[in-house]
Amino acid sequence: MFVNLSDVLTSEGMQLKKEIPLEMSVFECRGERFEITGRTPVSLVITNAGPGRAKIEGGMELTLQAGCDRCLTEVPVDLKLEFDRVALMPGGKPTEAEDEAALTEGYQLDTEAFVRNEILINWPVKILCREDCKGICPVCGQNLNMRDCGCDTFVPDPRMAVIQDIFKNKEV
Q: In sequence order, what are the beta bridge partners of 16?
């Protein structure tokens, strides 16, 4: 959904408050799809911040389904997004403190693209089903949180490979 910013960008002291329902049901990033299972409306307060500038403040909450980085189990990821950005009039030059990311298309703010960017900024570095997740067995693929598989997962130290070769040659 688009929000028209022309009045706010051209009228000093103008403020616009909006609550917009998020229409996006899937977040796509790096070839992966994350289903959005819960969301609040996008709450925006858009204020004129000087000639050709609009300050965008607000927030929303989202719940997405994502795989645990260790065991691949689907887990809910709760994100609380808080916005504090500056949108420029088309052709406006950002100051050093402002981000050069294009938030608008002409005088329109694309809320879906805006929220998508905010999700990317706030995406967690590591998603875990629980802090002590054991992951999956590298041999058989068993989820080690469910049960122990008994596979031999010993990985020899590669620095000792030369010594192992010496012992193998002596056994012959």
A: 46
